[in-house]
Amino acid sequence: MSHLAPHQELFKQLVTLGESVTDALDYTQLISTNGEGELEKTLTALGERELSPAAHRGLDALRAAGERVVTANDPHRAIDWIATYPRLLTTLLVAALNPKGLPSDHSANSASGSSSATRLPGGIAFTDAPPDGRAVVYAGIQGDPILKPLAHALAAASPADRLIARALMGDPEPDVTTAAAFAALLPSQRGPSDPLIVGALAIGGKAAQSNAQYRGAIVEATAAEILKRRPALVRDAERMVRRERRFSVDGASADPHPFDVTVEAGPIPELWDCKWGARGIDDNLLAELESARIRAAGVGVRIAIGIVAFDSAATVAARLSIVRGPRGQTRMITLDTLSRLAAG
Q: What angle do CA 145, 147, 151 make, to 5 degrees?
């Protein structure tokens, strides 16, 4: 039997579970088809090639994680794993057989120069969102000491390291053994005390509702951390890169909700919405971002709008193929390209 046949069977179980969410069926079927294609391609490339004990441990850990998702009977988590499972399996095999073939975030070192940020253009303003119950709860999550070291680790990590962190944070019951089996195959060789591993395990182990809130918070924290590394912002980064802020044009609110991360400096202010998975990108979000851009343009001010999705570029592309909202001016940053935020 092929090394990957059990994984293909488990993937089918994830798909069956995910397809029970009828309002996401078109997206689920699309990423399922893409995932099946990736698994088949990987199976063909692997053939009957022998794998090392470390590779087998990594694949066994992945399969066990997928089985935990099925056992948890959480169809929404299953949809997330339909996109993650084939990508992580391929990544682990590449790491075991040809580590030089692992993807790299080439823009990681591209933040250079000595340009300085300028004042906000006239007519544009940012304010704190009015406190409400959600804001109070979310502020507590954002202030959790586990987030900052994890965000720092993710900001500096390779795409492969970010992917294993994503898997651990999305695992219903992640454990140190699973983390060690994944990490042992990657060049970074992260140990159990590494902030990326410690943080990902802590978030993954939280109850479902809390887990979803923490995952969103870590995407925001990581995006903000990378933005603060821009040379133009670094001297006053805490003031210029903010979270959960309202945006207004000539004193009138230009957004229906606070933006996750903002760059509050000129010449071009930035509004970023952060999503754990590509499924969070929908027509309403795209329209909201475009509306803010148009409002600013109405007073002669250019702003930049974008989405940070802690998901693979392929999955984001699949999602964008079935949404219809305006996105011509919206920048997309994915798990593979997070460091582009530092380049401006």
A: 135
Residue 228's pLDDT band, with cuts at 50, 70 and 90, is: very high
Per-residue pLDDT tens for 168-210? 999 999 999 999 999 999 999 999 999 999 999 999 988 888 8
pLDDT greater than 60 at residue 158:
yes
Q: Are residues 40 and 121 in the same domain?
A: no
Which residues constitute the domain of residue 300?
108-138+230-343
Of 102, 122, 146, the residue that ends a domain is 102
Round to whole Å and give the CA distance between 93 and 58. Answer: 9
Q: Is residue 121 within 8 Å of residue 298, measured between CB atoms?
A: no
How wide is the angle at C-alpha 84 spanned by C-alphas 39 and 41, nearest 5°?
A: 15
- Cβ 338 vs Cβ 105: under 8 Å: yes
DSSP, residue by residue, 112-127: ------BPPPTTEEEE
Identity (one letter) of the amino acid at 157? A
